[in-house]
Design brief:
This protein is an alpha/beta fold. The chain contains 14 helices and 16 strands. The chain has a nine-stranded mixed beta sheet with strand order 14-13-12-11-7-10-9-8-16, sandwiched between helices. A seven-stranded mixed beta sheet has the order 3-2-1-4-5-6-15, with helices on both faces. It is globular.
Length: 487
């Protein structure tokens, strides 16, 4: 039976930065797919806002090309024509008052009760002038505001940004987006935990030896060298994406599945993270930087510098000091130019207290629950079973799939933005970060950055298409553990 399609209420979606890469590759294709699936009403409007001197027809031509390049599946001329009819374009220089007045005119062309969304698909330097411009021109009272990362560069800047946002918008109207939280498998993780009695009794330090969260990429920094060298992997990936996945894996069951109940529990996890300061930060972290090899350029070549202390790889050991997780470490790693593209959460269970098969079986791998986010989404249980056939008790590892993987159903996994963009229209903040979450994450990250800066030693060099620096192996092996293979 197919999914039920429920059309959302009429809306105006203003996309600042509508001619940029994110809008062309993700946002506009996501809105198109929701439109052709019947979730977006024909009376909705999508208003592109950028400095580019386009008119509406020029913007529609740009979007047509963007859909041709980035939409999943063929584009029917009739559906494309109907979608393009929703599009409007307004040139806006945020420092030009006349452009703002024109934007107000566009807003006022529809009735007052229409949902209005302002999506800031722009660099962080434009957050403040846009937010202040929305407030100054009275566009902040009933509208909703969406922001992309980076949400600050450290705790001080994140706090400044949150104060700025709260001066103009109520927290209930601020949507800090992390597209990882919109992935289908992340939703299945919560369903697996909180809609079934099977796993909850085992979801604790008594049964789980450790948790691994991996985000590996085969690409280098590509065209993001300037941004990436200022940020590094810790700021770019761990502070937001990986810590959010840690929170969803470790949180207590919320009182109900609503935005604040879920985010309250995530905040408690962040507040329970054992601080990594000074030598503890150095002992529980590894930084790496890819070198050249196999026809691929080095990190330094990619950023066009002779020297840099920024990391393209980071691995961390984190402890959560609460009753559920005391004694079970969480290992986080992310890096560029690694062996394969992979993102997964792996809960590795403790060994059986007494193994009775030593006389007939070789050592076996511990059980694991694996939540795969990319490239092929799904949830697997890795258990030990008897190998079929005669010849005695031969054990081997068996993988049980507990959630249907979209790629095996011959359909593409829905892009996370398709869910999140319309969650804003629905007024559902469950999959968006709250301001105190962002600040709590930076509170944990900042001391690690400070310890690295004070130690003043370079990242460990690692080969491209490898699993990262050797130091990351040592981070696990000193406690008798091993990383799962990147494949």
């Amino acid at each position: 039976m197919g999914a039920t399609i429920i059309t959302v209420d009429e809306f105006d979606y203003f996309v600042f930065g509508a001619t940029g890469d994110l809008a062309k590759k993700k946002l506009l294709p996501a809105l198109y797919h929701r439109f052709i699936d019947g979730q977006i009403p024909s009376a909705a409007r999508i208003i592109g806002c950028a400095r580019s001197p386009l008119d509406t027809e020029g913007f529609r031509a740009l979007v047509t090309q963007a859909l041709s390049d980035n939409a999943s599946g063929p584009i029917a001329p009739a559906s494309l024509s109907a979608f393009l009819a929703l599009l409007v374009y307004q040139t806006i220089d945020v420092g030009n008052p006349s452009d703002w007045h024109q934007l107000v005119t566009i807003v006022n062309q529809t009735r007052d009760d229409r949902i209005t969304v302002f999506y800031l698909s722009v660099g962080p330097s434009l957050f403040e002038p846009i937010v202040k411009g929305l407030k100054e021109h009275g566009l902040n009272h009933t509208s909703r505001l969406v922001l992309e990362k980076p949400l600050g560069f450290d705790l001080a800047s994140a706090t400044h940004l949150n104060n700025l946002l709260r001066e103009s918008f109520d927290e209930s109207r601020i949507y800090r987006i992390d597209h990882y939280l919109g992935k289908e498998t992340v939703q299945n993780l919560m369903a697996l935990r909180f809609a079934n009695i099977l796993f909850e009794p085992l979801w604790n330090a008594h049964y789980i030896d450790h948790v691994q969260i991996t985000a590996a990429e085969t690409l280098g920094v590509e065209g993001r060298g300037g941004y990436y060298d200022r940020s590094g992997a810790l700021r770019d990936m761990v502070q937001n994406h990986l810590l959010q996945l840690l929170c969803l894996s470790a949180m207590e069951p919320p009182a109900s599945f609503d935005a604040d109940s879920v985010r309250d529990e995530k905040l408690k996890v962040l507040q329970s993270l054992e601080p990594l300061t000074d030598q503890r930060a150095l002992d529980n972290s590894v930084r790496g930087q890819y070198r050249e090899g196999d026809g691929m350029a080095s990190y330094l070549s990619d950023i066009d510098k002779e020297h840099s202390q920024s990391e393209s790889y980071v691995a961390l050991r984190a402890n959560i000091n609460n009753w559920r997780w005391a004694g079970t470490p969480f290992y986080l790693r992310t890096g560029k130019r690694l062996r394969a593209k992979m993102m997964e959460i792996s809960l590795v269970f403790r060994k059986t207290p007494h193994f009775i098969f030593n006389h007939v079986a070789a050592p076996i791998q511990p059980n694991a629950l694996v939540i795969r986010l990319q490239p092929d989404e799904g949830i697997d249980i890795e258990i030990t079973t008897k190998q079929p056939g005669h010849g005695g008790m031969r054990l081997h590892n068996t993988v049980l799939e507990t959630a249907e993987a979209p790629h095996k159903a011959n359909r593409p996994a829905p892009d996370a933005y398709q869910r999140l963009l319309l969650d804003v229209v629905r007024g559902d903040q469950t999959l968006f970060m709250r301001g105190d979450e962002v600040e709590a994450a930076w509170s944990w990250i900042d001391p690690i950055i400070a310890a690295w800066r004070d130690a003043d030693y370079p990242p460990e060099i690692y080969a491209p298409a490898s699993e990262g620096p050797r130091g990351a192996v040592g981070l696990m092996s000193k406690e008798g553990r091993v990383w799962r293979e990147i494949q």
